[in-house]
Amino acid sequence: MTAESRPKNTSVTFINIFEISAEHVDAFVAQWEQRAALLSTKPGFLDFRLHRARSSETRFQLVNVSHWESREAWEAATGDPEFRERVDAAQGDPLTPVTSSRGLYDVAVGFSASAADPK
Questions:
Q1: pLDDT at residue 94, as a whole number
Q2: Which helix (H) or strand (E) segment is 51 a member of?
Q3: Which comes out higher in pLDDT, residue 36 or 117?
Q4: Is 56 helix (H, G, I), strand (E, B) or coil?
Q5: What distance in Å separates the CA atoms of residue 32 and residue 27, rounded to the nearest whole number?
Q6: Contacts of 74 (CB under 8 A, 6+ apart)
Q7: How far apart (Å, rounded) are the C-alpha atoms in residues 58 and 51?
């Protein structure tokens, strides 16, 4: 399915990976949780999970995966001035230097445990 043929209001997955040193992860997570709590109150929010690497040697220490009812809902929520202010403050914080790479995704292929069951 191409972007042009995809229905306009289908759910989307937002993925954001964070490159941050292991010693700064706890402070960043505390700030991230506050930003996520704000977004969770916005229309169209479905869920989120912040994943933490098990090894301090892993390049991307944190991976956020969230689901939204639509691209428009995600854009409205992340465009909120209070949220933008918090993101800008976090990105400029010299105590928790972080680089992020983010984007919206659609499922290309999916399996579940029940689908793989040979019975």
A1: 81
A2: strand 45-52
A3: 36
A4: coil
A5: 9
A6: 12, 14, 44, 68, 104
A7: 12
Phi, psi of 61, deg, nearest 5: -75, -25
Residue type at position 45 = F
Token pair, residue 81, equals 């001035």
**Measuring CA to CA, which residue among 21, 94, 28, 30 is closest to residue 60?**
21
CA distance 113 to 62: 25
Cα 6 from Cα 115, distance rounded (Å): 25
Q: What is the pLDDT of residues 70-119, one digit of tens each?
A: 999 999 999 999 999 988 888 887 877 889 999 999 989 989 898 665 65
Rounded distance, CA 27 to CA 78, Å?
21
pTM of the predicted structure, to 2 decimals: 0.81
Q: What's the CA gap between 20 and 52, in Å, rounded?
A: 11
Structural contact between residues 81 and 41, judged by C-beta atoms closer than 8 angstroms = no
How many Å apart are CA 25 and CA 48, to the nearest integer?
18
